[in-house]
TrEMBL record:
Gene Ontology terms describing biological process: isopentenyl diphosphate biosynthetic process, methylerythritol 4-phosphate pathway; terpenoid biosynthetic process
EC number: 2.7.1.148
Residue intervals of the GHMP kinase N-terminal domain: 74-152
List of catalytic residues: 17, 144
Protein name from the UniProt record: 4-diphosphocytidyl-2-C-methyl-D-erythritol kinase
Source organism: Ornithinimicrobium ciconiae
InterPro entries noted in UniProt: GHMP_kinase_C_dom, GHMP_kinase_C_sf, GHMP_kinase_N_dom, IspE, Ribosomal_Su5_D2-typ_SF, Ribsml_uS5_D2-typ_fold_subgr
The protein's annotated pathway: Isoprenoid biosynthesis; isopentenyl diphosphate biosynthesis via DXP pathway; isopentenyl diphosphate from 1-deoxy-D-xylulose 5-phosphate: step 3/6
GO MF annotation terms: 4-(cytidine 5'-diphospho)-2-C-methyl-D-erythritol kinase activity; ATP binding
Key words, A-Z: ATP-binding, Isoprene biosynthesis, Kinase, Nucleotide-binding, Transferase
Catalysed reactions, as listed in the record: 4-CDP-2-C-methyl-D-erythritol + ATP = 4-CDP-2-C-methyl-D-erythritol 2-phosphate + ADP + H(+)
Domain GHMP kinase C-terminal: 214-282
Gene behind this protein: ispE
Length: 320
């Protein structure tokens, strides 16, 4: 029997994401929009721990735990149950989630927890599945879930679930403005985007990723990356959450190289070139921008990773 199977618990850390580019194409018959997006995993992490148990349960703690469901609607629980069903695992797990990723913030926190639960349970049950083998099941749980299995920077197509890695070197410095109010509902923001487009008589074409952004990422030219950030949901997010216009303007006035609403919002990501510039921008935003939580982070970072097996003799760490 493998070490993993003997273990009493497995802990995984999983990052949130921002979208460096989100090109929204036509609404499909299945209710999803065709996308061309560039996902970018950033260093704000949830931790998921799974322990064998007689019945399924979820406990949520941490700074952003408020409002996360602890019943059957929890995405991490859904992911663990789906994996058990798919591979004929009997028995259950107790899930413990330490939440740091904003909820309904456009950073795919629920999707991250689903990806984290898949990786944790895969390890606990000794299934020997690669990330690629987990992808099809991940895609049934949400369009962003496959990306969080891999992390890094990747182009997403289809409804966001088909991935191709993007080559880049070095690290980007980000300052995030996070709403300390309520978040935004993803379906509501897509619907608002459709409404605004229809009202403007906009012709919606098949989405393609921008070569300029991919080129800028290859050399990690911060100013060029900043100039090519784009999100077609931004207008809709600002329409539903008007303070975002002020947030975007405040960060750009304070010297950010670029600013973009992440995914369906309302989190806003500002790109700067150095850690010192990130500190300056955070201080400026906290003092002069609209009220919100300001966080500094970097990307790209790896996707869901096992960090600890808790065995009969105590914890065994895998990464720092
Ligand atoms: C906004 C993004 O975060 C950008 O990466 C994603 O597109 C949203 O991904 P997600 O939260 O995993 O979304 P899902 O759980 O798959 O879908 C939730 C809802 O969002 C809308 N949705 C999502 C993805 C997509 N390509 N088109 C859509 O219109 C649909 O109304 C769908 O019912
Ligand atoms: N483990 C979880 N963590 C956070 N939210 C969860 C979780 N499970 C279910 N949810 C529900 O999912 C909804 C969306 O939460 P999430 O934090 O993933 O939004 P989001 O970051 O805006 O999503 P995305 O960026 O993928 O569009 C919330 O209403 C929340 O109630």
């Amino acid at each position: 029997m493998s070490q993993a199977v003997e273990s009493r618990g497995v802990s995984v850390r999983v990052p949130g994401k921002i979208n460096l580019e989100l090109v929204v194409g036509p609404l499909r018959d299945d209710g999803y929009h065709e996308l061309a997006t560039v996902f970018h995993a950033v260093g704000i992490y949830d931790h998921i721990t799974v322990t064998p148990a007689d019945r399924w349960s979820v406990q949520v703690t941490g700074p952003t735990a408020a409002g996360v469901p602890t019943g059957p609607g929890n995405l991490a629980l859904k992911a663990a149950k789906a994996l058990a069903r798919r591979y004929g695992i009997e028995g259950a797990v107790a899930l413990s989630i330490e939440k740091n990723i904003p909820v309904s913030g456009g950073m795919a926190g629920g999707s991250a927890d689903a990806a984290g639960a898949l990786v944790a349970c895969e390890s606990l049950w000794g299934l020997q599945l690669s990330r690629d083998e987990l992808e099809p099941l991940a895609a049934t749980l949400g369009s962003d879930v496959p990306f969080l299995l891999h992390g890094g920077t990747a182009v997403g197509s289809g409804r966001g679930e088909r991935l191709a890695p993007v080559l880049s070197r070095g690290e980007l410095q980000w300052v995030l403005w996070v709403s300390n109010d309520s978040g935004l509902s993803t379906p509501a923001v897509y619907a608002e985007c459709d409404r605004l487009r229809e009202a403007a008589g906009e012709q919606v074409v098949e989405p393609t990723p921008s070569g300029d952004l991919i080129g800028a990422l290859r050399t990690m030219d911060t100013e060029a990356v900043g100039a090519t950030l784009r999100n077609d949901l931004q207008g809709a997010a600002c329409s539903l959450y008007p303070v975002l216009d002020e947030v975007l303007e405040a960060g750009l006035t304070l010297g950010a190289h670029g600013a973009v609403v992440s995914g369906s919002g309302p989190t806003v990501a500002f790109l700067v070139s150095t850690q010192a510039a990130a500190i300056d921008l955070s201080v400026g935003l906290a003092a002069r921008g609209p009220a919100g939580d300001i966080r500094r982070t970097t990307g790209p970072v790896a996707g869901a990773q096992v960090v600890q097996h808790v065995g009969p003799t105590g914890p065994q760490n895998f990464t720092g």
